[in-house]
Design goal:
Blueprint lengths: L16 H7 L2 H4 L16 H6 L27 E6 L3 E6 L28 E6 L14 E5 L4 E3 L2 E7 L4 E3 L7 E3 H5 L8 E2 L7 E2 L4 H6 L4 E4 L4 E4 L8 E5 L4 E3 L2 E5 L2 E8 L4 E3 L9 H4 L6 H7 L26 E3 L18 E4 L8 E5 L28 E2 L5 E7 L7 E7 L2 E7 L4 E8 L6 E8 L4 E6 L5 E9 L2 E2 L11 E5 L5 E4 L19 E3 L10 E2 L13 H12 L9
Parallel strand pairs: 5-10, 14-20
Antiparallel strand pairs: 1-2, 1-22, 2-3, 3-21, 4-5, 4-13, 6-7, 6-8, 9-10, 11-12, 13-14, 15-16, 17-18, 19-20, 22-32, 23-24, 23-31, 24-27, 25-26, 25-28, 28-30, 29-33
């Protein structure tokens, strides 16, 4: 079964001023780590999907594989680590989602697509202080990263039309640029994502499964394993960050850009088809012989094309196939904020829940039925200045502070509540892990209650038959997994709870951080200079040996508060 929505609560902890500033920075707090201790899972075929059978390695023998993407060893999901400097946030991820991915079929709907996702082991670099230039940069493929660490690509499929050959290919002229949604849509899974031959799982359009996990206006049908749009009741959450450091939201924003009390509605695209309506050129009559103003500007060429630059006829290639089939309303005398919401980069300046004083932000474009509409999410230009063309680095070459660690080496948050004459213990956990549970009257001498509690997924429970002043949980073993993209050493991670009898919570330190046990454990804020980044050629380890990295400085305090609201509102397990 598909993972159910994971509720997310944001509780603010009164910390020292510098720490509070970090705890409320959405560029640090918005990343999805709650399910990062779960294995990536896919439906390999429609039959698997109907039966609810998922796989943690793929593809199995006998299934078509036309690329280099595959997973041969269990791999963790979502965001594995967030670190920051004064100017950048670094997000370490496997690029695989915690919802069940797949299956992927070719355009005929019956033949397997034959391309499979892989562990990307990527480090994303997001500017913390976005700059808005007059001259815009081209997106050139990767537009940003979603808050679950999955890549977000721009709206094109990197192929364009060639007038001389009459075909669309990667070697086209770059004038009539084909859109991914209309062309590649049949190869998307239920989350609207897929991957090319090299296994780079990504979204081009509305990431429905992620939005469902985040609590946006999306419903999930457990019978058909599909997602549908619902009536919005609140502003969409941040679903990702563009490479220029601006937030990306779902489809719903405040009705009036400057007024959070103005109600919520679907944001309207600034683009319309060139079909003769809204004052546009009718390509069905003229043919694809001219470019719209915005596209001519992006391509730095004349609107009027030479005959050897014409696009294909609309009788054979429908209007809406290419980005250049759309006109920007701002070039037709219409006004942003009055006639439409989003500019030609798909951005508006507005107040949001995370930015009450206002921010430039991208939005997801859909119609009233939930279908993606141009320019989808990221168009052909960034509104701000990107940190790099692709938004990733192979290593971190500056001093950073770790904000949060996810995955199998995440700090344990342990809670205890009365259960009859005993205590029900709960803690965040990782797939494949084994835990030891102990009790003590003095926090010095501990008695083993169970030496081998098997992980229950991203949350594990154990009921102690009798109360005690202290309980301790330690990760003692973990099954072999792909360490690429992860960080820290899981084995030895521990948390000790001082149980008061009325419900207690504590968060331990990460395993490579000094821990004194007892109640909430914190460490002095620590920085580290990272000179070697994680690459996709990572090894596997049954002991959980991953990269080191900086210990979490004040995250223990924050996590203790977060745990009250969401640590064990566990999503439903997947088969």
């Amino acid at each position: 079964m598909n993972r159910s929505r994971a509720p997310r609560f944001l509780l603010f902890v009164a910390l020292a001023a510098p720490l509070a500033a970090q705890s409320t920075d959405p560029r640090l707090t918005s990343w999805l780590t709650e399910a990062s201790g779960s294995y990536a899972r896919v439906y390999q075929t429609n039959a698997d999907k109907s039966a609810g059978t998922t796989s943690t390695t793929w593809p199995r023998a006998g299934l078509l594989n036309r690329g280099t993407g595959s997973v041969s060893t269990a791999t963790y999901t979502d965001v594995q680590r967030v670190a920051y400097s004064a100017n950048y946030v670094y997000v370490q991820t496997t690029g695989l989602a915690s919802y069940t991915m797949g299956p992927w079929y070719d355009v005929d709907g019956t033949t397997l697509f034959g391309m499979w996702p892989k562990n990307r082991a990527a480090i994303h670099q997001i500017p913390r202080n976005p700059a808005i230039p007059t001259t815009k940069s081209l997106t050139r493929g990767v537009g940003g990263v979603l808050v679950n660490g999955v890549f977000l690509w721009n709206n094109g499929d990197a192929q364009s039309y060639s007038t001389s050959t009459g075909t669309v290919s990667f070697n086209g002229q770059g004038i009539w640029n084909r859109l991914a949604g209309p062309t590649e849509g049949p190869t998307f899974d239920a989350a609207n994502a897929h991957q090319p031959q090299d296994g780079q799982y990504h979204n081009h359009i509305n990431p429905r499964a992620l939005r469902y996990q985040l609590g946006d206006a999306v419903t999930f049908d457990a019978t058909t394993q599909t997602y549908s749009e619902a009536t919005p009741t609140k502003h969409s959450p941040i679903i990702g960050w563009a490479n220029d450091g601006l937030p990306i939201y779902g489809p719903y924003g405040y009705s009036t850009a400057s007024n959070a009390a103005s109600g919520v509605r679907r944001m309207t695209s600034g683009f319309v088809k060139r079909d003769g309506t809204n004052g546009t050129t009718n390509l069905a009559l003229t043919g694809r012989t001219t470019l719209p103003v915005w596209a001519a500007s992006v391509q730095n060429r004349s609107q009027t094309l030479a005959s050897n630059q014409y696009g294909p006829g609309t009788a054979t290639t429908a209007i809406g196939t290419f980005a250049e089939d759309y006109e920007y309303l701002g070039d037709l005398g219409k006004t942003q904020g009055v006639d439409f919401d989003l500019n030609r980069q798909n951005v508006r300046f507005c107040v949001t829940p995370e930015f009450p004083s206002g921010t430039y932000a991208y939005f997801t474009c859909i119609d009233a039925s939930g279908n993606s509409v141009f320019p989808d999410v990221i168009n052909q230009e960034f509104f701000g200045t990107p940190a790099s063309t692709q938004g990733t680095v192979t290593s971190i070459s500056e001093t950073v502070t770790e904000y949060v660690r996810g995955g199998p080496a995440a700090a344990l948050t342990l809670t205890g509540t009365a259960s009859g004459t005993g205590v029900a213990l709960k803690w965040n956990s990782a797939d494949g892990a084994t835990y030891k549970v102990e009790s003590s009257s003095d926090n010095a001498a501990f008695t083993t209650l169970s030496s081998a509690v098997t992980s229950g997924g991203i949350g594990t429970t154990y009921t102690a038959a009798a109360t005690a002043s202290y309980f301790r949980v330690t990760l003692t073993a973990i099954a072999t997994y792909d360490t690429a993209g992860t960080t820290g050493v899981p084995v030895g991670t521990t948390a000790t709870l001082h149980y008061t009898g009325t419900g207690s919570t504590t968060t331990g330190a990460t395993n490579d951080t000094a821990s004194t046990g007892g109640t909430t454990t914190t460490t002095t804020p620590t920085t580290t200079t990272t000179t070697t980044g994680t690459t996709s050629s990572g090894s596997t380890s049954s002991a959980g040996g991953g990269g080191g990295g900086a210990p979490s400085d004040w995250f223990a305090l924050v996590a203790a508060a977060l745990a009250i609201g969401r640590a064990f509102a566990s999503p439903a397990k997947r088969k």
